[in-house]
Amino acid sequence: MIRYEDVTEDVVDLAREVLAEFFPELRNVKIKYLFDLKKRMSNGKVTFARCQRTNDILKYFTIDESGNEEGYNYIIYLDKLLWDNIERADRIRLVRHEMRHIFIDPDAKNPYKLVPHDIEDFAAEIELNIDDVRWGQRLAQLETDLYDQQADMEEGE
């Protein structure tokens, strides 16, 4: 089974909205969005999204699709099972969080950088999510439950 698939156009549209509203400085950055079809763990925790800076080989393979002679600069992976089971507000939180990892340093040889978390999250995201400060834990539990249900259904087949 292939692990990744292209996101649907509505995901790209939502990402454009998030970029326009929160990150206008990233408007020229080329970002590829993919659905991850398998559960991902990191340091014992479920990972429902991640942002990756592309390397030379990924850039090469994405030149044609990106419409840019350098290919994509970043890839944002979204857990498809979780994405399909959350509401728009959580989708925005998820995409916005991943975009916070992107940093452009125009004076560097390779200007595309990744920013680690300020804390377990980003300070700016805590302010924006004051109405639901535990959204990450809530989504982590939901994702775990969804994958458990999926495994139970596969065992029953």
Overall geometry comes to globular
The secondary-structure element order is: EHEEEEHHEHHEEHH
SS content category: alpha+beta
Relative helix content: 40-55%
Strand content: 15-25%
**CATH structural architecture:** 2-Layer Sandwich
Contiguous helical run count: 7
Uncertain segments are none
Nearest-integer average pLDDT:
90
- The CATH H-level superfamily is Metalloproteases ("zincins"), catalytic domain
**CATH class category name:** Alpha Beta
- First and last CA, distance: 18 Å
CATH topology: Zincin-like
Compute the number of strand runs.
8
- Strand order in the sheet with the most strands: 1-2-6-5
Number of domains: 1
Rounded radius of gyration (Å): 16 Å
Largest β sheet strand count, sense and barrel closure: 4 strands, mixed
Structure commentary:
The protein is of the alpha+beta class. The protein has a single domain, classed as Zincin-like (2-Layer Sandwich). It has 7 helices and 8 strands. α1 crosses α5. It is globular.
Helix and strand arrangement:
Blueprint: E1 4-6, H1 9-22, E2 31-36, E3 41-42, E4 45-46, E5 49-53, H2 56-61, H3 63-66, E6 74-79, H4 80-83, H5 88-99, E7 102-104, E8 112-114, H6 123-128, H7 135-156
Parallel strand pairs: 2-6
Antiparallel strand pairs: 1-2, 3-4, 5-6, 7-8
Helix pairs in contact: 1-5
